[in-house]
Amino acid sequence: MTNSIFEQFEIFRIVPIHPFGNLDISITNSTIFMAIAVGIFYLLYKINIANGKLIPERWQSVLELTYEFIHNMVKDTIGKEGAAYFPLIFTLFVFIGIMNLVGIIPYTFTPTAHIAVTFGLSLTIFLAVTFIGLVRHKADFFSMFLPAGSPIALAPFLIIIEFISHGIKAISLGVRLAANLTAGHLLFAILSGFTWKLLIAGSYFSLISIFPFLIILFITGLEIAVAVIQVYVFCILTSIYINDSIHLH
User: Fold this and answer.
1) Domain count, the chain
2) Residue 41 and residue 101: Cα distance in Å, rounded?
3) CB 125, CB 174: distance < 8 Å
């Protein structure tokens, strides 16, 4: 029986835990791969701190470049006040980036391809930036829903549009990440299955399988690029949302 291309997205319980009736806090494959991402994050930076050298080696250079890249992005997007939010953005970048890249390895699992995970992240960020705006500006925070200089007659419509636009942030941030990763994984699975069928068919079909195999190599490189680009988009949008709450843009 041929496995479904959607099988790679299946979440299954590894350690069932039901402490209070219907409350399900079981350890799943998604839980494990998120824990793996945290473990890799910790080990890489623990090793870097312990073995840091004045003249950095290859891996230390990668870590320092990543740190500097995110720092400059946050500074350019939020300004001087962005320093307080840099640890959050940097942690999001590395954590999501590791999950994206590990998920490309065959027979692994990609938590960020699930809307439940990405929506949880985006909703948390949405609530956090809204809270920041309310605490910082109090009632003035609601002025962001009515652009300056807007005609009074259009005010009700503009407020509704701006309010919906603000609320969409809680959805779009997570949907964008999950949708792009899911699409890439499905394309990879379809091409891999097609290539395998040609290869085992024998005769001249085996020779033809070289072409889709080359496409798979290209798709793999594209998947790596998408994994990095999407985490960058996620983090820069988070920075923009924070900036909007701070400066009421």
Assistant:
1) 1
2) 13
3) no
For Cα atoms 138, 143, 148, give the angle at the middle one, nearest 5 degrees.
Answer: 150
Look at residue 1 and tell me if it is in a domain: no
Residue 2 lies in a domain: no
3-state secondary structure 28-60: EHHHHHHHHHHHHHHHHHHHHHHCCCCCCCHHH
3-state secondary structure of 22: coil
Evaluate whether residue 107 is within a structural domain.
Answer: yes
Write down the residue that tokens 């350890």 correspond to: 27
Residue 129 lies in a domain: yes
Domain holding 20, by residue range, is: 7-247
What are the DSSP calls for 61-99, one per residue? Answer: HHHHHHHHHHHHHHHHHH-GGGGGGHHHHHHHHHHHHHH
Ordered mean pLDDT values, 10 residues apiece, the chain (249 residues): 68 80 81 91 74 66 85 91 90 92 87 89 92 88 76 80 84 88 84 76 69 80 89 93 84
Q: Is the pTM of this model over 0.70?
A: yes
